[in-house]
UniProtKB/TrEMBL annotation:
It comes from Methylobacterium ajmalii. GO terms for molecular function: hydrolase activity. Pfam families: FAA_hydrolase (PF01557). Residues 27-232 form the Fumarylacetoacetase-like C-terminal domain. This is Fumarylacetoacetate hydrolase family protein. The lineage of its organism: Bacteria, Pseudomonadati, Pseudomonadota, Alphaproteobacteria, Hyphomicrobiales. InterPro entries: Fumarylacetoacetase-like_C (IPR011234), Fumarylacetoacetase_C_sf (IPR036663).
Length: 232
């Protein structure tokens, strides 16, 4: 039996120290997981249950170590924002995963950006509509080379930063997350059966802001790596 159209390419992320790839199934993103960022978005940073939205797997953009990748400015926006995040790659699936076992399901970690058409997201919020037009544009999820947990462990603290043309805009620490990676995995698995190939964007610190064509973004997480992109 043949496919009636060419089979779409599957997004896959590079892995440090090998030519192997991590194929991506689903992309989950947690909202407002740093208290200071929640406040700058006008939300209450208390420890209420986390909420998630999704990006298509093919919205991810691969950013190999040591390279500066061109990142296209998307259409239909005049306010395109950066959000630097820890990306969690899931190797073992499951439902109702206990918090104390959640990190056993992680393959590794990377640096990612949740790029956002903020004006469209704000319009969606005002109209009580879903966020896809703001959050799921083409290549809106740049991700760097994955670092296996077997090599770097499970980072629970360390600086997370984003600079634009050399000026630091976002600066926080992984220890500032309201919901830890293990808690996010456990909570999410009560709503979805997690599967190998799923990735989670684990939230962004304060300082999100707009970028324009010609600017270069550098996202970095201590112990995980950095990614570099020029907006074109």
């Amino acid at each position: 039996m043949l496919s009636v159209i060419p089979n779409p390419a599957r997004t896959a992320l590079p892995i440090q120290g090998t030519d192997d790839l991590f194929p991506v199934r689903r992309v989950y993103c947690v909202g407002r997981n740093f208290a200071a960022h929640a406040r700058e978005m006008g939300a209450d940073p208390t420890r209420e249950p986390p909420f998630f939205f999704m990006k298509p797997a093919d919205a991810l953009q691969v950013v190999p170590d040591g390279e500066t990748v061109e990142h296209p400015y998307p259409p239909k926006t005049e306010n395109y924002h950066h959000e630097v995040e820890l990306v969690v790659a899931i190797a073992k699936g499951g439902r109702d995963i206990p918090v104390e076992e959640a990190l056993d399901h992680v393959y590794g970690y990377g640096v990612g950006l949740d790029m956002t058409r903020r004006d469209l997201q704000d319009d969606a919020k005002a109209l009580r509509r879903s966020w896809e037009l703001g959050k799921a544009s083409d290549l809106s999820g740049p991700v760097g080379t994955l670092k296996p947990a077997s090599v770097i462990g499970h980072p629970a603290k360390g600086a997370i930063t984003l600079s634009v043309d050399g000026a630091v805009r976002q600066k926080g620490d992984l220890s500032d997350m309201i919901w830890s990676v293990a808690e996010q995995i456990a909570y999410l698995s009560t709503y979805f059966a997690l599967e190998p190939g799923d990735v989670i964007f684990a939230g962004t610190p304060e300082g999100v802001g707009a970028v324009t064509r010609g600017q270069t973004m550098v996202g970095a997480i201590e112990g995980v790596g950095e990614i570099r992109l020029t907006v074109v």
